[in-house]
Request: fold
Amino acid sequence: MKTIGHWIDGRAVTRKSGRTSPVYDPARGRQTGEVQLASAAEVSDAVRAAVRASTDWATSSSSRRASLLFRLRELLDAHRADLAATVTREHGKVLFDAEGEIARALECVEFACGIPHLLKGSHSAEVSTGVDVHTVLHPVGVVAGITPFNFPVMVPLWMLANAIACGNAFVLKPSEKDPSASLLLAELVQRAGFPDGVFDVIQGDAEAVDALLTHADVGAVSFVGSTPVARHVYEIGTAHGKRVQALGGAKNHMVVLPDADLDAAADAAISAGYGSAGERCMAISIVVAVGAAADPLVEAIASRIPDVVIGPGDDSASMMGPLITREHRDRVRSYIEGAPSEGARVVVDGSTDALGDGFFLGCALLDRVKPGMRVYDDEIFGPVLGVVRVSSYEEAVALINANPYGNGAAIFTRDGRAARRFEREVRVGMVGINVPIPAPVAWHSFGGWKASLFGDAPIHGPEGVRFYTRQKVVTSRWPDAAPSEVDLGFPKNR
Ligand code: NAD
Reply:
């Protein structure tokens, strides 16, 4: 069985003993490997390597960093198929979906290739007689990234590309559920020519995370995962003096107004609700059907569900793969089973023809869902779409705004005025107008509101550059530019 270890200072590191966690092929329900779970001492080894590397890396020229990023971009492009296959093997998502993840990951590197431009500071000449001020951006030092299972290539690259472009060393703690992609990334980063130690990977669970959050040499932490862990990471990390961005879970609503193209809305609900088996933070989990839209929309969604082909991610006929673990699949199924006792109507129950021992579940559709039901209140993170019926646009927006999560929300309508109102009035970080998964491209930043983001910094794009740098403001005067004098007052500038 494969042993999946760490990547420290430019080498694969496996230990002979210590805790491990099983890694599965979710499509077949078989264990394929075991991942080593780092102790605090192993985390310290990785951070030490990163500290050593960060000194020279921080002072390397931005043009050198950009040229290495261009090489990394080419290597990632050449290895799209390997990366996608690695994701599918351990995550289970279908190959074409994994390829989409790699494409979006590449975008992040392409954005970071412009780092000489992105790190341009600002300059004010002659703010007082003979005095100039300029602002420069310095790297933070060593930064850590803690990532979820559902995007094992894209989410690490949301962080890694900008972090190292800005001159930091980056220590990644990937999900223990699908850890192999992180090692393939590490090899490609090394082949691109980045110095050893600039990118380190430490495999592990909560113990490794807590070691990173409390390590004196880690200056910043980026986290993406569920809300309870995001809150923990934010609280412990900031209590230890680090800057922290912690992106949490979601419950994304899609409002459908009666004037919408209901066929397009039903297609979108199917794609965004069941794509990646609903294991996306931008998945639609609640359809908010307004007024007369409800009956035809529920029927249109239900009629499309039998066409969703469920099967192993490496079978080109499959449209939706398995869930990540058996326990998670059973937990998701328990929501569907419990829905009638809460008053929801099960339109499609998620049962599938037997697919061996894989962690499969079919698409489920629940109608007449309401706040206060577990299926509404909890992030289910599986192929379960709930329909909430409301009577007006105002009720739809009030529902979304009262929800504790605020990642994304979409509206489907032909009414430009309603769409503009929605954009302004909805309290979430990412809005889609006739677009069900409004995940921003890499040159905009990604982040939710409320319990979907702790800290004030969205991830990647321009906000990523800001998060991974510290500004320094320099005020300068040269002795021969202006006469000097003693003045004990606060500088008035004249
Ligand atoms: P998770 O919170 O269980 O795990 C995320 C990371 O935290 C992993 O690396 C894991 O090892 C670590 N971890 C888990 N429990 C921990 C603990 N008690 N203490 C410290 N560290 C711990 O999330 P997941 O199941 O891997 O991923 C799914 C979740 O991630 C969903 O809630 C989804 O919405 C969210 N997500 C959010 C975004 C976003 O951009 N907001 C993107 C992707 C996924």
